[in-house]
Amino acid sequence: xxxxxxxxxxxxxxxxxxxxxxxxxxxxxxxxxxxxxxxxxxxxxxxxxxxxxxxxxxxxxxxxxxxxxxxxxxxxxxxxxxxxxxxxxxxxxxxxxxxxxxxxxxxxxxxxxxxxxxxxxxxxxxxxxxxxxxxxxxxxxxxxxxxxxxxxxxxxxxxxxxxxxxxxxxxxxxxxxxxxxxxxxxxxxxxxxxxxxxxxxxxxxxxxxxxxxxxxxxxxxxxxxxxxxxxxxxxxxxxxxxxxxxxxxxxxxxxxxxxxxxxxxxxxxxxxxxxxxxxxxxxxxxxxxxxxxxxxxxxxxxxxxxxxxxxxxxxxxxxxxxxxxxxxxxxxxxxxxxxxxxxxxxxxxxxxxxxxxxxxxxxxxxxxxxxxxxx
Length: 375
Fold this sequence. Notes:
The protein is α/β, with parallel strands linked by helices. The protein contains 13 helices and 13 strands.
């Protein structure tokens, strides 16, 4: 261990030295990663997994828990496994309703020692790793996205392998690029993304698969389409227009879309997304022929979505002011996902199509808006 630490310090100094006049990013980085648990049998995928026969319920840690998906997943898992068996973590201060809804811990995924202490002290058996900078935000700060999305992942992988965790890391439509087949996009094909977000997600898929074969890590991954949720604000993603339109439709009756009207992308309502995450985590090892699966529900364009919303709110005015960065990202992404492997291997099935999505979103946001006005 002293040798490893010494080598790590040397590598750290070299990596943090400015090159070509660039300002170095000062973050805590583990430059030499290794799994303390060397597994010789690479074919036993269940070596580290904790089954329900060994424990009544998993003990779950969710990183990046204050994002769009973390709070919703915590609510779902707490109903299933008990309030105190699911711990949310983030580097931000949680709102009071989240803080009082169940356990919350401050955690920086770049702080390996702190992460390890949380896992050990709370006897964590499942780790859901949501910490990441999304597509548009990542392009605005590549250095930070690289640190959070890649260095943070390495910390998570090492800790999960060392402590025998079942690990879930989401991937995305952004893991594909302009040379990938777009309609439909299969699970296995060319992946050459052109955003740091997409590159980091391909890296996560491959590293997770490697740790699975090399160390027996029970790694599970779903490629999410664009996720639409009523109870969270857009977080800097290219598909955020499909959330913002509902808020604007109810509050102002006007919406300016930053993508072209015919830009087709795969989408999913958040309830389907969270249920898929739980189902793949609970799935037995045997039918899982892959470590990363596409999942899908629907595919639509901004124009099709606007038309469906206008069936409920005919006065909605929609205009288009194209964001060239987001449009270029969207044009490199799949138009439709082939998720037949997920449906065949572990029984994935979505509940929400476009009409159900629109009705649910308007009901939720409209009700929330009326309550705010009354208050």
